[in-house]
């Protein structure tokens, strides 16, 4: 009490989540501290088939995303059809992959573009929520504002001087209306990276049980030589 730290090993590195606990059950909001997040490129001109030339930013929050306002693609992130937003976001992702080479300062295994986040363009600090939609992987859409996406967007806004350390912004998913908050907690390392805290509601969706039988010869695991 009043909070339990849960340390997770993610593909991008260790992430610590914090869950409220009253001695009987967990509560909300749940928050996590990100891996170091940073802007990789800003104001990058990209030619997107079917949409012409657009200007995107690329930022890392555990994975890389391209960011741009939906307006550049002739869409509105709050009112356009999700199918149209997904198609446009996917087209941007493919165009960026072909026209820009990513680099991660610590692991080239992480140097790939995971998706595109279309925004309402409201990047300057405000008490009002800013809306976005995350189109990732194989044209999938996140039901939330996206944890790694909010992390990357906060890092981008900090890099541009649009927010300061400790300022909290609220992000809304255009698909479900769910909300996350995010803030840049501290600067990190020799490059202009920040640790971001992301907070939102979390609910149980399932449980899993693992069983170890005594006669299992590999019950304690194994090593490769």
Automatic annotation (TrEMBL):
InterPro entries in the record: Pro_racemase_fam (IPR008794)
Keyword terms: Lyase
Enzyme class: lyase
EC number(s) stated in the UniProt entry for this protein: 4.2.1.77
GO molecular function, one term: trans-L-3-hydroxyproline dehydratase activity
Reaction(s) catalysed (UniProt annotation): trans-3-hydroxy-L-proline = 1-pyrroline-2-carboxylate + H2O
Matches recorded under Pfam families: Pro_racemase
Subunit structure: Homodimer.
Family: Belongs to the proline racemase family.
PANTHER family: TRANS-3-HYDROXY-L-PROLINE DEHYDRATASE (PTHR33442)
Entry protein name: trans-L-3-hydroxyproline dehydratase
Organism expressing this protein natively: Phainopepla nitens (Phainopepla)
């Amino acid at each position: 009490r009043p909070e339990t730290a849960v340390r997770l090993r993610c593909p991008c590195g260790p992430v610590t989540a914090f869950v409220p606990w009253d001695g009987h059950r967990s509560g909300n909001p749940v928050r996590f501290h990100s891996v170091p997040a940073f802007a990789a490129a800003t104001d990058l001109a990209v030619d997107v088939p079917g949409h012409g030339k657009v200007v995107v930013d690329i930022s890392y929050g555990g994975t890389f995303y391209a960011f741009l306002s939906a307006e550049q693609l002739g869409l509105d992130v709050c009112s356009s059809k999700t199918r149209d937003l997904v198609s446009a976001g996917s087209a941007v992702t493919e165009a960026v992959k072909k026209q820009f080479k990513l680099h991660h300062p610590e692991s080239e295994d992480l140097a790939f573009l995971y998706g595109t986040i279309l925004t309402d363009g409201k990047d300057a600090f405000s008490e009002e929520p800013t809306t976005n939609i995350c189109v990732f992987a194989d044209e999938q859409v996140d039901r939330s504002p996206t944890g790694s996406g909010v992390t990357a967007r906060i890092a981008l806004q900090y890099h541009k001087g649009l927010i300061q350390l400790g300022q909290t912004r609220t992000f809304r998913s255009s698909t479900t209306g769910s909300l996350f908050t995010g803030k840049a907690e501290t600067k990190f390392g020799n490059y202009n990276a920040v640790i971001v805290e992301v907070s939102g509601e979390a609910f149980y969706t399932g449980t899993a049980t693992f069983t170890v039988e005594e006669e299992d010869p590999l019950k304690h695991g194994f090593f490769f030589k």
